[in-house]
């Protein structure tokens, strides 16, 4: 059997990403740069991903959404689109954690592969997303994708993660890791640039969920925001 045909949607950060998979095989991938215009890009990207793979939207077996944490607006756009498709087609909705997805995809990066070869199981993977100022969304995983430290919103200081750094080498990556590189001055801390959330990295965790019937309730599912949304007030009045 070829496996289920699943549409994957990633809108948790500035990058809009859509992938189509069949079983564990990637059929198509459409991604943006950091334009932060998911509302205008997402539906177009879905149509292109389906067309590139030569498939019809009506033929998919499920829709997977990257559930967060991340951008409040981006997550809402992605989830509402995924809900609309699953409701209309009467197919399952699946949701996988954004940081876990990043950890799954990170091992393909050449610099991270080199760290894995050097440190083996003593290496932990820490995907990080920027949460403004000196705060990040972070989680820690073993190379077997077992969670070592659950997702949290952390304010970075010089002694952050000191206990883990004493016993492990840690690879930090994602757009939240850039500001940490200036502060976490530890010989066991390694920073890799150029790793961002991508819909293609959802394939492995989502397929496992699909096989185990771990589906979301379309009516009641909400993204994993982690923090409450705080609206900002413009400094100047606009008439």
The largest β sheet comes out as: 5 strands, mixed
Total tally of structural domains? 2
Identify the strand order in the major beta sheet: 3-2-1-4-5
The CATH topology label of the largest domain is: Nucleotidyltransferase, domain 5
CATH architecture of the largest domain: 2-Layer Sandwich
Number of distinct helices: 7
Helix content: 25-40%
CATH class of the largest domain: Alpha Beta
Written description of the protein model:
- The chain is an alpha/beta fold.
- It folds into two domains: 5-98 and 197-211, Nucleotidyltransferase, domain 5 (2-Layer Sandwich), CATH 3.30.420.40; 110-192, Nucleotidyltransferase, domain 5 (2-Layer Sandwich), CATH 3.30.420.
- The chain contains seven helices and ten strands.
- It has helices spanning 38-53, 72-89, 98-106, 110-119, 162-167, 177-181, 203-211; strands at residues 5-10, 17-22, 25-31, 62-66, 93-96, 123-130, 135-141, 147-155, 169-173, 189-192.
- It has a five-stranded mixed sheet with strand order 3-2-1-4-5, with helices on both faces. A five-stranded mixed sheet has the order 8-7-6-9-10.
- Helix 1 packs across helix 2 (72-89).
- The longest helix is centred in the middle third of the chain and has 18 residues, at 72-89.
- The chain is globular and about 50 Å long.
- The N and C termini lie far apart (60 Å).
Supply the key terms.
disordered C terminus, 7 helices, 239 residues, Nucleotidyltransferase, domain 5, single chain, five-stranded mixed beta sheet, 2 domains, 31% helix, globular, alpha/beta
Topology:
Elements: E1 5-10, E2 17-22, E3 25-31, H1 38-53, E4 62-66, H2 72-89, E5 93-96, H3 98-106, H4 110-119, E6 123-130, E7 135-141, E8 147-155, H5 162-167, E9 169-173, H6 177-181, E10 189-192, H7 203-211
Parallel strand pairs: 1-4, 4-5, 6-9, 9-10
Antiparallel strand pairs: 1-2, 2-3, 6-7, 7-8
